[in-house]
Design brief:
The complex is a heterodimer of chains A (219) and B (245).
Chain A lengths: L4 H40 L4 H15 L3 H11 L9 H26 L3 H9 L4 H31 L11 H12 L3 H32 L2
Helix pairs in contact in A: 1-2, 1-4, 1-6, 1-7, 1-8, 2-4, 3-4, 4-6, 6-8, 7-8
Chain B lengths: L1 H24 L7 H35 L2 H16 L2 H11 L9 H26 L3 H9 L4 H31 L11 H12 L2 H39 L1
Helix pairs in contact in B: 1-9, 2-3, 2-5, 2-8, 2-9, 3-5, 4-5, 5-7, 6-7, 7-9, 8-9
Protein backbone atom coordinates (compact mmCIF):
# COMPACT_ATOMS: atom_id res chain seq x y z
CA UNK A 1 0.00 0.00 0.00
CA UNK A 2 1.68 3.16 -1.21
CA UNK A 3 -0.79 5.72 -0.02
CA UNK A 4 -3.06 5.61 3.03
CA UNK A 5 -5.92 8.10 2.72
CA UNK A 6 -7.12 7.61 6.27
CA UNK A 7 -3.70 8.50 7.61
CA UNK A 8 -3.55 11.43 5.22
CA UNK A 9 -6.75 12.98 6.60
CA UNK A 10 -5.48 12.38 10.10
CA UNK A 11 -2.27 14.39 9.56
CA UNK A 12 -3.66 17.23 7.44
CA UNK A 13 -4.85 19.29 10.46
CA UNK A 14 -1.51 18.82 12.22
CA UNK A 15 0.38 19.99 9.15
CA UNK A 16 -2.04 22.89 8.66
CA UNK A 17 -1.24 24.06 12.16
CA UNK A 18 2.49 23.77 11.52
CA UNK A 19 2.15 25.75 8.31
CA UNK A 20 1.22 28.78 10.42
CA UNK A 21 4.78 28.79 11.79
CA UNK A 22 6.12 28.46 8.24
CA UNK A 23 4.08 31.47 7.13
CA UNK A 24 5.07 33.43 10.22
CA UNK A 25 8.76 32.79 9.55
CA UNK A 26 8.32 33.72 5.89
CA UNK A 27 6.52 37.00 6.53
CA UNK A 28 8.68 38.21 9.41
CA UNK A 29 11.86 37.04 7.67
CA UNK A 30 10.93 38.90 4.53
CA UNK A 31 10.05 42.13 6.34
CA UNK A 32 13.48 41.99 7.98
CA UNK A 33 15.11 41.19 4.63
CA UNK A 34 13.39 44.12 2.92
CA UNK A 35 14.60 46.56 5.58
CA UNK A 36 18.14 45.14 5.89
CA UNK A 37 18.44 45.00 2.12
CA UNK A 38 17.53 48.65 1.68
CA UNK A 39 19.97 49.71 4.40
CA UNK A 40 22.79 47.66 2.85
CA UNK A 41 22.04 49.01 -0.62
CA UNK A 42 22.18 52.60 0.64
CA UNK A 43 25.35 51.98 2.65
CA UNK A 44 26.92 50.44 -0.43
CA UNK A 45 26.25 53.61 -2.41
CA UNK A 46 27.98 55.75 0.20
CA UNK A 47 30.73 57.99 -1.20
CA UNK A 48 32.88 57.05 1.80
CA UNK A 49 34.87 53.95 0.88
CA UNK A 50 35.12 52.83 4.48
CA UNK A 51 31.37 52.46 4.62
CA UNK A 52 30.76 51.22 1.08
CA UNK A 53 33.43 48.50 0.93
CA UNK A 54 32.59 46.72 4.21
CA UNK A 55 28.92 46.74 3.23
CA UNK A 56 29.82 45.20 -0.14
CA UNK A 57 32.08 42.65 1.59
CA UNK A 58 29.31 41.73 4.02
CA UNK A 59 26.85 41.19 1.17
CA UNK A 60 29.32 39.03 -0.77
CA UNK A 61 30.20 37.03 2.32
CA UNK A 62 26.58 36.28 3.19
CA UNK A 63 25.76 35.47 -0.42
CA UNK A 64 28.56 32.97 -0.82
CA UNK A 65 28.09 30.93 2.36
CA UNK A 66 25.25 28.48 2.97
CA UNK A 67 22.12 29.61 4.78
CA UNK A 68 22.16 26.45 6.91
CA UNK A 69 25.56 27.36 8.37
CA UNK A 70 24.38 30.92 9.00
CA UNK A 71 21.37 29.55 10.87
CA UNK A 72 23.67 27.34 12.97
CA UNK A 73 26.02 30.27 13.49
CA UNK A 74 23.28 32.55 14.83
CA UNK A 75 21.69 29.81 16.90
CA UNK A 76 24.86 28.34 18.42
CA UNK A 77 27.45 31.12 18.32
CA UNK A 78 25.51 34.17 19.48
CA UNK A 79 24.74 32.59 22.91
CA UNK A 80 28.50 32.52 23.54
CA UNK A 81 28.43 36.31 23.33
CA UNK A 82 25.54 36.42 25.76
CA UNK A 83 22.75 36.76 23.21
CA UNK A 84 20.39 33.80 23.55
CA UNK A 85 17.62 33.63 21.00
CA UNK A 86 14.76 31.22 20.64
CA UNK A 87 14.97 28.85 17.71
CA UNK A 88 12.29 30.64 15.70
CA UNK A 89 13.79 34.09 16.36
CA UNK A 90 17.25 32.87 15.37
CA UNK A 91 15.82 31.33 12.24
CA UNK A 92 13.94 34.48 11.25
CA UNK A 93 17.04 36.56 11.89
CA UNK A 94 19.16 34.26 9.69
CA UNK A 95 16.57 34.23 6.90
CA UNK A 96 16.25 38.02 7.11
CA UNK A 97 20.00 38.65 6.94
CA UNK A 98 20.57 36.10 4.16
CA UNK A 99 17.77 37.35 1.95
CA UNK A 100 18.50 40.94 2.99
CA UNK A 101 21.83 40.71 1.21
CA UNK A 102 20.11 39.29 -1.88
CA UNK A 103 17.50 42.05 -1.72
CA UNK A 104 20.23 44.69 -1.40
CA UNK A 105 21.42 43.75 -4.89
CA UNK A 106 17.88 44.19 -6.17
CA UNK A 107 17.52 47.60 -4.53
CA UNK A 108 20.93 48.58 -5.86
CA UNK A 109 19.78 47.85 -9.39
CA UNK A 110 16.75 50.08 -8.74
CA UNK A 111 18.80 52.87 -7.17
CA UNK A 112 21.39 52.87 -9.92
CA UNK A 113 18.68 53.20 -12.53
CA UNK A 114 17.59 56.61 -11.24
CA UNK A 115 18.62 59.23 -13.78
CA UNK A 116 21.52 61.39 -12.67
CA UNK A 117 19.39 64.50 -13.16
CA UNK A 118 17.26 63.52 -10.16
CA UNK A 119 20.30 63.60 -7.92
CA UNK A 120 21.50 66.86 -9.40
CA UNK A 121 18.05 68.39 -8.96
CA UNK A 122 18.00 67.44 -5.28
CA UNK A 123 21.41 69.06 -4.82
CA UNK A 124 20.14 72.15 -6.62
CA UNK A 125 17.13 72.25 -4.28
CA UNK A 126 19.47 71.96 -1.30
CA UNK A 127 17.84 68.78 0.01
CA UNK A 128 19.67 66.90 2.74
CA UNK A 129 20.84 63.35 1.87
CA UNK A 130 18.07 62.00 4.09
CA UNK A 131 15.36 63.92 2.23
CA UNK A 132 16.92 63.14 -1.12
CA UNK A 133 16.63 59.43 -0.43
CA UNK A 134 13.28 59.54 1.33
CA UNK A 135 11.37 61.87 -0.95
CA UNK A 136 13.09 61.66 -4.33
CA UNK A 137 15.16 58.55 -4.89
CA UNK A 138 13.46 55.71 -3.01
CA UNK A 139 9.89 56.40 -4.23
CA UNK A 140 11.17 56.11 -7.78
CA UNK A 141 13.61 53.25 -7.20
CA UNK A 142 11.36 50.75 -5.46
CA UNK A 143 8.32 50.17 -7.72
CA UNK A 144 10.34 48.84 -10.70
CA UNK A 145 12.12 46.26 -8.52
CA UNK A 146 9.03 44.98 -6.67
CA UNK A 147 8.68 41.90 -8.93
CA UNK A 148 12.32 40.94 -8.29
CA UNK A 149 11.71 41.33 -4.56
CA UNK A 150 8.62 39.16 -4.97
CA UNK A 151 10.75 36.40 -6.46
CA UNK A 152 12.98 36.50 -3.39
CA UNK A 153 9.88 36.34 -1.21
CA UNK A 154 9.00 33.04 -2.89
CA UNK A 155 12.60 31.85 -2.59
CA UNK A 156 12.65 32.69 1.14
CA UNK A 157 9.38 30.82 1.60
CA UNK A 158 10.96 27.74 0.04
CA UNK A 159 13.99 27.98 2.33
CA UNK A 160 11.97 27.91 5.56
CA UNK A 161 12.23 24.08 5.87
CA UNK A 162 15.89 24.73 6.80
CA UNK A 163 14.62 25.93 10.17
CA UNK A 164 13.80 22.29 10.94
CA UNK A 165 17.56 21.85 11.45
CA UNK A 166 17.36 23.94 14.64
CA UNK A 167 14.13 22.20 15.68
CA UNK A 168 11.65 24.94 14.84
CA UNK A 169 8.32 23.17 14.65
CA UNK A 170 7.49 24.28 11.12
CA UNK A 171 6.08 22.09 8.35
CA UNK A 172 9.16 19.99 7.58
CA UNK A 173 10.00 19.30 11.20
CA UNK A 174 6.39 18.34 11.92
CA UNK A 175 6.35 16.04 8.89
CA UNK A 176 9.56 14.39 10.09
CA UNK A 177 8.17 13.89 13.58
CA UNK A 178 4.95 12.42 12.15
CA UNK A 179 7.07 10.13 9.97
CA UNK A 180 9.21 8.93 12.82
CA UNK A 181 6.13 8.26 15.00
CA UNK A 182 4.37 6.06 12.47
CA UNK A 183 7.21 5.01 10.14
CA UNK A 184 5.16 6.37 7.28
CA UNK A 185 7.13 9.12 5.60
CA UNK A 186 5.38 8.94 2.23
CA UNK A 187 2.26 10.90 3.13
CA UNK A 188 3.68 13.68 5.34
CA UNK A 189 6.65 14.52 3.12
CA UNK A 190 4.62 14.35 -0.08
CA UNK A 191 1.99 16.63 1.45
CA UNK A 192 4.68 19.12 2.47
CA UNK A 193 6.08 19.01 -1.07
CA UNK A 194 2.60 19.63 -2.52
CA UNK A 195 2.01 22.49 -0.10
CA UNK A 196 5.19 24.23 -1.22
CA UNK A 197 4.48 23.53 -4.88
CA UNK A 198 0.96 24.98 -4.73
CA UNK A 199 1.98 28.04 -2.75
CA UNK A 200 5.00 28.84 -4.91
CA UNK A 201 3.01 28.46 -8.13
CA UNK A 202 0.28 30.73 -6.75
CA UNK A 203 2.84 33.22 -5.44
CA UNK A 204 4.72 33.19 -8.76
CA UNK A 205 1.46 33.91 -10.60
CA UNK A 206 0.70 36.77 -8.19
CA UNK A 207 4.18 38.24 -8.74
CA UNK A 208 3.59 38.10 -12.50
CA UNK A 209 0.25 39.94 -12.10
CA UNK A 210 1.90 42.51 -9.85
CA UNK A 211 4.61 43.04 -12.45
CA UNK A 212 1.97 43.61 -15.11
CA UNK A 213 0.01 45.98 -12.86
CA UNK A 214 3.13 48.01 -12.05
CA UNK A 215 3.99 48.26 -15.73
CA UNK A 216 0.58 49.77 -16.45
CA UNK A 217 0.58 51.96 -13.36
CA UNK A 218 4.09 53.38 -13.69
CA UNK A 219 4.33 54.00 -17.44
CA UNK B 1 31.84 47.44 -13.02
CA UNK B 2 35.10 45.51 -13.40
CA UNK B 3 36.80 47.79 -10.86
CA UNK B 4 33.98 47.32 -8.44
CA UNK B 5 33.98 43.53 -8.63
CA UNK B 6 37.72 43.61 -8.13
CA UNK B 7 37.19 45.77 -5.06
CA UNK B 8 34.69 43.24 -3.73
CA UNK B 9 37.08 40.36 -4.33
CA UNK B 10 39.80 42.26 -2.47
CA UNK B 11 37.44 42.91 0.45
CA UNK B 12 36.48 39.24 0.51
CA UNK B 13 40.10 38.16 0.58
CA UNK B 14 40.87 40.61 3.39
CA UNK B 15 37.80 39.44 5.31
CA UNK B 16 38.64 35.77 4.98
CA UNK B 17 42.27 36.49 5.83
CA UNK B 18 41.38 38.32 9.03
CA UNK B 19 38.83 35.65 9.84
CA UNK B 20 41.53 33.04 9.25
CA UNK B 21 43.92 34.92 11.51
CA UNK B 22 41.29 35.23 14.22
CA UNK B 23 40.59 31.53 13.97
CA UNK B 24 44.26 30.60 13.95
CA UNK B 25 44.80 32.57 17.13
CA UNK B 26 42.28 30.39 18.96
CA UNK B 27 44.08 27.65 20.79
CA UNK B 28 43.51 24.10 19.65
CA UNK B 29 42.12 25.02 16.30
CA UNK B 30 44.37 22.40 14.71
CA UNK B 31 42.38 19.59 16.23
CA UNK B 32 39.33 20.55 14.19
CA UNK B 33 41.10 20.99 10.89
CA UNK B 34 41.59 17.35 9.76
CA UNK B 35 37.94 16.45 10.36
CA UNK B 36 36.69 19.59 8.67
CA UNK B 37 39.02 19.06 5.69
CA UNK B 38 37.58 15.58 5.29
CA UNK B 39 34.10 17.11 5.38
CA UNK B 40 35.17 19.68 2.81
CA UNK B 41 36.29 16.83 0.52
CA UNK B 42 32.80 15.33 0.62
CA UNK B 43 31.28 18.78 0.00
CA UNK B 44 33.50 19.29 -3.04
CA UNK B 45 32.71 15.83 -4.45
CA UNK B 46 28.95 16.40 -4.13
CA UNK B 47 29.30 19.89 -5.62
CA UNK B 48 31.22 18.64 -8.67
CA UNK B 49 28.96 15.65 -9.37
CA UNK B 50 25.82 17.68 -8.67
CA UNK B 51 26.94 20.45 -11.06
CA UNK B 52 27.65 17.88 -13.78
CA UNK B 53 24.18 16.33 -13.38
CA UNK B 54 22.58 19.81 -13.24
CA UNK B 55 24.15 20.85 -16.55
CA UNK B 56 23.07 17.63 -18.27
CA UNK B 57 19.51 17.87 -16.90
CA UNK B 58 19.26 21.57 -17.76
CA UNK B 59 20.17 21.03 -21.41
CA UNK B 60 17.89 18.01 -21.78
CA UNK B 61 14.94 19.76 -20.11
CA UNK B 62 15.40 23.07 -21.93
CA UNK B 63 15.77 21.47 -25.37
CA UNK B 64 12.81 19.17 -24.66
CA UNK B 65 10.70 22.14 -23.53
CA UNK B 66 11.50 24.05 -26.71
CA UNK B 67 11.70 21.42 -29.44
CA UNK B 68 10.38 18.03 -28.32
CA UNK B 69 6.98 16.62 -29.35
CA UNK B 70 4.10 17.38 -26.99
CA UNK B 71 4.11 14.59 -24.34
CA UNK B 72 7.87 15.03 -23.85
CA UNK B 73 7.42 18.78 -23.68
CA UNK B 74 4.85 18.39 -20.90
CA UNK B 75 7.23 16.11 -19.07
CA UNK B 76 9.99 18.73 -19.29
CA UNK B 77 7.67 21.53 -18.16
CA UNK B 78 6.40 19.57 -15.17
CA UNK B 79 9.96 18.59 -14.20
CA UNK B 80 11.01 22.25 -14.27
CA UNK B 81 7.94 23.51 -12.40
CA UNK B 82 7.98 20.80 -9.73
CA UNK B 83 11.66 21.14 -8.94
CA UNK B 84 11.58 24.93 -8.99
CA UNK B 85 8.36 25.04 -6.99
CA UNK B 86 9.34 22.96 -3.97
CA UNK B 87 12.15 23.33 -1.48
CA UNK B 88 15.46 21.61 -2.07
CA UNK B 89 15.26 20.18 1.44
CA UNK B 90 11.80 18.70 0.82
CA UNK B 91 13.11 17.11 -2.41
CA UNK B 92 16.09 15.70 -0.56
CA UNK B 93 13.91 14.22 2.18
CA UNK B 94 11.44 12.91 -0.35
CA UNK B 95 14.15 11.01 -2.22
CA UNK B 96 15.69 9.84 1.04
CA UNK B 97 12.61 8.80 3.04
CA UNK B 98 9.87 8.18 0.48
CA UNK B 99 11.64 6.41 -2.39
CA UNK B 100 12.53 3.38 -0.21
CA UNK B 101 8.75 2.82 0.24
CA UNK B 102 8.55 2.33 -3.50
CA UNK B 103 11.34 -0.23 -3.31
CA UNK B 104 14.11 2.08 -4.53
CA UNK B 105 16.83 2.47 -1.95
CA UNK B 106 19.71 4.73 -2.91
CA UNK B 107 22.70 5.37 -0.74
CA UNK B 108 22.74 8.86 0.81
CA UNK B 109 25.52 10.20 -1.41
CA UNK B 110 23.57 9.26 -4.55
CA UNK B 111 20.43 10.83 -3.11
CA UNK B 112 22.38 14.02 -2.42
CA UNK B 113 23.84 14.27 -5.92
CA UNK B 114 20.54 13.37 -7.60
CA UNK B 115 18.42 15.76 -5.51
CA UNK B 116 20.75 18.75 -5.84
CA UNK B 117 21.49 18.03 -9.49
CA UNK B 118 17.80 17.79 -10.37
CA UNK B 119 16.95 20.89 -8.32
CA UNK B 120 19.61 23.14 -9.83
CA UNK B 121 19.08 21.52 -13.24
CA UNK B 122 15.49 22.81 -13.22
CA UNK B 123 16.69 26.37 -12.61
CA UNK B 124 19.44 25.85 -15.19
CA UNK B 125 16.89 24.74 -17.79
CA UNK B 126 15.41 28.25 -17.76
CA UNK B 127 18.91 29.72 -18.07
CA UNK B 128 19.61 27.52 -21.09
CA UNK B 129 16.25 28.41 -22.65
CA UNK B 130 16.84 32.11 -22.11
CA UNK B 131 20.30 31.95 -23.66
CA UNK B 132 19.12 29.96 -26.69
CA UNK B 133 16.25 32.37 -27.27
CA UNK B 134 18.60 35.32 -26.98
CA UNK B 135 20.59 34.17 -30.03
CA UNK B 136 19.70 36.66 -32.79
CA UNK B 137 17.02 35.53 -35.23
CA UNK B 138 19.33 36.12 -38.17
CA UNK B 139 21.46 33.19 -37.04
CA UNK B 140 18.48 30.86 -37.39
CA UNK B 141 17.61 32.35 -40.75
CA UNK B 142 21.19 31.84 -41.89
CA UNK B 143 21.07 28.15 -40.96
CA UNK B 144 17.88 27.79 -42.99
CA UNK B 145 19.56 29.52 -45.92
CA UNK B 146 22.47 27.09 -45.57
CA UNK B 147 19.99 24.20 -45.62
CA UNK B 148 20.98 22.88 -42.20
CA UNK B 149 18.66 20.58 -40.29
CA UNK B 150 17.43 21.88 -36.92
CA UNK B 151 19.68 19.49 -34.99
CA UNK B 152 22.67 20.55 -37.03
CA UNK B 153 21.81 24.24 -36.65
CA UNK B 154 21.49 23.89 -32.88
CA UNK B 155 24.71 21.93 -32.58
CA UNK B 156 26.90 23.98 -34.87
CA UNK B 157 25.50 27.50 -34.79
CA UNK B 158 23.02 28.25 -32.01
CA UNK B 159 24.30 26.38 -28.96
CA UNK B 160 27.95 27.45 -29.32
CA UNK B 161 26.80 31.08 -29.12
CA UNK B 162 24.23 30.43 -26.41
CA UNK B 163 26.78 28.66 -24.22
CA UNK B 164 28.94 31.79 -24.08
CA UNK B 165 25.97 33.85 -22.89
CA UNK B 166 24.98 31.36 -20.22
CA UNK B 167 28.34 31.08 -18.46
CA UNK B 168 27.76 33.91 -15.91
CA UNK B 169 24.32 32.68 -14.76
CA UNK B 170 25.71 29.16 -14.51
CA UNK B 171 28.40 30.51 -12.20
CA UNK B 172 25.66 31.76 -9.88
CA UNK B 173 23.83 28.43 -10.04
CA UNK B 174 27.02 26.48 -9.25
CA UNK B 175 27.49 28.62 -6.15
CA UNK B 176 23.83 28.04 -5.24
CA UNK B 177 24.41 24.30 -5.56
CA UNK B 178 27.58 24.45 -3.51
CA UNK B 179 25.69 26.26 -0.75
CA UNK B 180 22.82 23.79 -0.97
CA UNK B 181 25.24 20.91 -0.27
CA UNK B 182 25.08 22.00 3.37
CA UNK B 183 21.58 20.47 3.39
CA UNK B 184 22.91 16.96 2.78
CA UNK B 185 24.23 16.95 6.34
CA UNK B 186 20.59 16.47 7.34
CA UNK B 187 20.44 13.10 5.56
CA UNK B 188 23.46 11.73 7.45
CA UNK B 189 26.20 12.52 4.93
CA UNK B 190 29.34 13.63 6.73
CA UNK B 191 30.02 16.76 4.72
CA UNK B 192 31.44 20.02 6.06
CA UNK B 193 28.20 21.08 7.79
CA UNK B 194 27.70 17.61 9.31
CA UNK B 195 31.24 17.48 10.67
CA UNK B 196 30.74 20.96 12.09
CA UNK B 197 27.58 20.17 14.01
CA UNK B 198 29.05 16.85 15.13
CA UNK B 199 32.18 18.52 16.51
CA UNK B 200 30.03 21.26 17.99
CA UNK B 201 28.02 18.70 19.94
CA UNK B 202 31.12 16.99 21.31
CA UNK B 203 33.35 19.99 22.04
CA UNK B 204 31.07 23.04 22.30
CA UNK B 205 33.81 25.09 20.62
CA UNK B 206 31.13 26.76 18.57
CA UNK B 207 32.83 30.01 17.55
CA UNK B 208 35.99 28.38 16.17
CA UNK B 209 34.22 25.56 14.36
CA UNK B 210 31.56 27.60 12.62
CA UNK B 211 33.97 30.39 11.69
CA UNK B 212 36.33 27.90 10.03
CA UNK B 213 33.39 26.33 8.24
CA UNK B 214 32.14 29.68 6.92
CA UNK B 215 35.65 30.48 5.66
CA UNK B 216 35.81 27.06 3.95
CA UNK B 217 32.56 27.66 2.12
CA UNK B 218 33.67 31.16 1.17
CA UNK B 219 36.90 29.71 -0.22
CA UNK B 220 35.07 27.13 -2.34
CA UNK B 221 32.70 29.84 -3.62
CA UNK B 222 35.67 32.06 -4.52
CA UNK B 223 37.27 29.22 -6.47
CA UNK B 224 34.03 28.77 -8.44
CA UNK B 225 33.76 32.53 -9.07
CA UNK B 226 37.36 32.83 -10.27
CA UNK B 227 37.07 29.68 -12.40
CA UNK B 228 33.86 30.78 -14.07
CA UNK B 229 35.27 34.23 -14.77
CA UNK B 230 38.31 32.64 -16.44
CA UNK B 231 36.00 30.42 -18.46
CA UNK B 232 33.93 33.46 -19.44
CA UNK B 233 37.04 35.28 -20.65
CA UNK B 234 38.28 32.24 -22.57
CA UNK B 235 34.89 31.77 -24.25
CA UNK B 236 34.54 35.45 -25.14
CA UNK B 237 38.04 35.43 -26.63
CA UNK B 238 37.09 32.51 -28.84
CA UNK B 239 34.02 34.39 -30.00
CA UNK B 240 35.82 37.59 -30.96
CA UNK B 241 38.51 35.64 -32.76
CA UNK B 242 35.81 33.84 -34.69
CA UNK B 243 34.20 37.10 -35.75
CA UNK B 244 37.42 38.64 -37.01
CA UNK B 245 37.87 36.00 -39.74
Amino acid sequence: MFWDWEYTWEIVPVLAEASIITIEATVLGFILAAVVGLLLAILRMSPTRWIALPAAGFVEFIRSTPLLIQIFFIFFVLPEFGITLGALTAGILALGLHYGSYCSEVYRAGLENIPRGQWEASIALNLSPYHTFRDIIIPQAIPPVVPALGNYFVALFKETPLLSAIAVLELMQTAKILGSETFRYTEPITLVGLYFLVFSLVAAALVRRLEHWLKVRWR
Amino acid sequence: MRMQTRGIVVVCIILSFTAGLAVASFAGFREFLPGLLEGARVTVIITVLGCALAVVMAFIAALAKMYAPLPLRWLAVSYIEIFRGTSALVQLFWLFFVLPHFGITLDPLTVAVVALGLNVGAYGAEVVRGAVQAVPRGQWEATIALNMSRTEALKRVILPQAVVAMIPPWGNLFIELMKATALVSLITISDLAFKASQMNQTTYRTVEIFTIVLVFYLAIASVITVGMRALERAAARGLSRGRAH
